[in-house]
Design goal:
343 residues; alpha/beta; Rossmann fold; 2 domains; five-stranded parallel beta sheet; four-stranded parallel beta sheet; 13 helices; globular; binds phosphoric acid mono(formamide)ester; amino acid binding; EC 2.1.3.2; transferase; aspartate carbamoyltransferase activity
Length: 343
Amino acid sequence: KYAQSAQSGPLRDRISYNGKHQLLSVDQFTRESVEELFRIADQMQPIARRQKVSRVLEGAVLGNLFFEASTRTRVSFGAAFCRLGGSVCDTTGFTFSSMAKGESIYDTSRVMSGYVDALVIRHPERGSVAEFADATNIPVINGGDGAGEHPSQALLDLYTILTEFSRLGKLLDGAHIAMVGDLKYGRTVHSLIKLLALYRDLKFTLVAPKGLEMPDYILEQAGKRGHVIEQTSSLEQGLVGADVVYATRVQKERFADEQLEGYTADFQVNKAIVDRCGRSDAIIMHPLPRDSREGAHDLGVDLNHDPRLAIFRQADNGIPVRMAIFAVLLGVEGLVQHSLRDV
Ligand code: CP
């Protein structure tokens, strides 16, 4: 499933951020290092499914600081840490943090690093998680910083694509990836396109309504690696030939002065359009949550029983991938195999 790696030295040193064992951006990875992380994620699968037990993080404490809504990222990071024998302390929202009393990011980070062994942080401002990381030497993981990045989501997305392609007998090199929806504010696609760009000869079709296109700085970074990047506002056109269809939610909460009029049901990935224009062996992904409210148009529930829909397999992959991230950043990945015992 993965290419051979010729890299040497601990993975956590090779993916470090400013010399620290922290994960802020997918820019920290090469193709070799990301695939090394995925080999560790594969080893985590029996523990993630509770077929085996490991306590390599026994006694360690994770601080989950989430200043924005989350279900998957917060719970799966917490569950991943617990599956390796550690414990988790959570703070959710500004209201229940002393930042509501005016405490700075610097002070919060310094204080928390005296209490816990690693931090996962989600914050509405782009660049804010890097501020937390700069203030401490403990592992800090970016759980989403505004419209910036969501590196662990992109890692589990890429892991899902490689796993699904392996099942289908396909290679990622040369594949066609369609990304659909709010590509301006969707941080998962910002991280994912950069990570996918580590592969060879990809074609990206970016399907977005006017005003919600992928930012130029990300297009330039992916474009430098020689991939074909096409932009369109036609979903039908975007789906034709795509091996991966990655739908996203409209991030209304991040809108400045954008209007939603341009975003209509024409952008919904649903069974009718996938059957009409999509490949029979396409995989359909979404970082979730999908918006199920009246008038929302990201991903139709009529695909729920379609085998091409990979969204729940994708969400499940959050556990082994996040276990691998912790094991690497905390330097215990070499101990996991020896620590395994039966349930
Ligand atoms: N995909 C994702 O980040 O989901 P949550 O917002 O529920 O964490």
